[in-house]
Automatic annotation (TrEMBL):
Organism (species): Sedimenticola selenatireducens
A GO term, aspect molecular function: monooxygenase activity
Database matches in SUPFAM superfamilies: Dimeric alpha+beta barrel (SSF54909)
Sorted UniProt keywords: Monooxygenase, Oxidoreductase
InterPro entries: ABM_dom, Dimeric_a/b-barrel, Heme-degrading_MO
Annotated TM spans: none
Oxidoreductase listed as a keyword: yes
Any single Pfam family the record assigns to this protein: ABM
Domain of life the protein comes from: Bacteria
Record-given protein name: Antibiotic biosynthesis monooxygenase
Occurrences of domain ABM (ranges): 2-91
């Protein structure tokens, strides 16, 4: 299994709108080849910080989705005017050793 984690921090007081957008997400990634599941996490100590954790059958599946048209389409529900802290944004990928 392959895991992709991305982190971002909302910089303009729109965290509530981001949470709502995730709750009502269109689910386009759900039908991507090799996709297993997604979790959206919001730490107790920083309500403006978000972590997305996606699980995939293999790294190639994630790379194909991330660089393809489905990735862009799946972000169409992003709240208008959202600003992120560019220094806090990151993507990390992992190979799952044990589960």
């Amino acid at each position: 299994m392959f895991v992709a984690m991305s982190k971002f921090v909302v910089a303009n007081n729109m965290s509530d709108q981001v949470r709502e957008a995730f709750r009502n997400r269109p689910g386009l990634v759900d039908s991507a080849e090799g996709f297993i599941r997604m979790e959206v996490l919001n730490p107790d100590d920083n309500p403006d910080e978000f972590w997305l954790v996606t699980y995939w059958q293999k790294s190639e599946d994630w790379h194909e989705w991330y660089h393809g048209h489905q990735y862009k389409a799946s972000h169409s529900n992003i709240p208008k005017g959202l600003k992120l802290d560019p220094e806090a944004t990151m993507i990390r990928t992992f190979n799952c050793i044990a589960s």
